[in-house]
Amino acid sequence: MNLKDSKSKLVFSELSDFKKIAEIDIEKINQAQDLEEWKIKYLGRKSFLTNVLRDIKNYDISERPAIGSEANKIRKFLGNLFEEKQNIIKNNQQSSLGAFDYSLSGRIPNIGRLHPVTQTIREVCSAFSSLGFQIQEGPEVEWDLYNFDLLNIPKNHPARDMWDTLWIDEEEIEGKKMLLRTHTSPMQARIMEKNDPPIRVVIPGKCYRYEATDSTHEWHFNQIEGLAIDTNLNFTDLKGTLYDFARKIFGSERKIRFRCDYFPFVEPGVDMSIDWNNDWIEILGAGMVHPKVLESVGYDPEKYSGFAFGVGVERIAMIRHGIDDIRHFYGNDMRFLSQF
């Protein structure tokens, strides 16, 4: 017998002893941590079994298949032992915990929820969507051309005093200045510029005005602008649309009141109020789109007509939830926000 024959016989003997010792050791194990240590010792990268497979190239070519086959059989055998013991330990742990007590009270998971203003925006948009209106958004940083000029509010017009504007500190570009939009109405002009009638769209978004903050005013707030353009639209269509919207949001028996009001981009203009706790509360301004606005975007006012409206989102939320201070919405007080 040559040296290689002796080496081959020795490794077979060592593999047999290795298998027996591993079986004996695993029988003593009752804890998951001890089982993991056993796995590392007998099946890990530095185990005797792994070293045999790694060094198989050092054996005679005729002996390699037999050694490799025996080592892999032992690896599979020990792997099965590991899985069996793992299941036994797991079952013993579950049994020690006892049966589940279904009388215990459940734990409510702490999950996030939508901000009350966001909830209101979605509800209002859903109400108008059911009436055939599409939903679009627009830029919060706007040109004065769209915020004022194309809405029948030219430079030096007294109506500009109605909005305390936050201007962007940049030079004029082609006679235009940038600002934080004071209302969502600029999207009226933008949409009409790019689309031919019929148009039915609502535009939710944030607006900004340089004014003092109190219980009913914020320097930033949300509006939902509405616009409908078609042939032969009249004030009856406006009233019918807003009546239906108010009843979807506030209830089917809600009373509605319209009064004359002034907005430069509509004629005639109105404000709409609802009956709430035996009082009238204004919730939006509206009116028929001014002919000059139609002309400014290339529409023929003899052919097309339309109506527009602007909903104050925070006002809607305050009425629906009985909130008396608009500042609560943006105070980041979880005691307030978690109620919704």
Q: What structural keywords apply?
A:
10 strands, BirA Bifunctional Protein, domain 2, alpha+beta, three-stranded antiparallel sheet, single chain, 2 domains, elongated, 41% helix, 340 residues, seven-stranded mixed sheet
Helix vs. strand class: alpha+beta
Based on CA inertia axes, which overall geometry fits? elongated
| Overall tally of domains | 2
H and E string? HHHHHEEHEEHEEHEEEHEHH
Task: State the helical fraction.
Answer: 40-55%
Average pLDDT figure: 87
CATH topology of the largest domain: BirA Bifunctional Protein, domain 2
Task: Enumerate the strands of the largest sheet in spatial order, edge to edge or round the barrel.
Answer: 1-5-6-10-9-8-7
CATH H-level superfamily title of the largest domain = Bira Bifunctional Protein, Domain 2
Total count of strands: 10
Low-confidence stretches: none
* CATH domain class name of the largest domain: Alpha Beta
Q: Could you say what the CATH architecture of the largest domain is? A: 2-Layer Sandwich
Count of separate DSSP helical elements: 11
| End-to-end separation | 87 Å
TL;DR?
The chain has about 350 residues and is an alpha+beta fold. It is built from eleven helices and ten strands. The protein has a seven-stranded mixed beta sheet with strand order 1-5-6-10-9-8-7, sandwiched between helices. A three-stranded antiparallel beta sheet has the order 2-4-3.
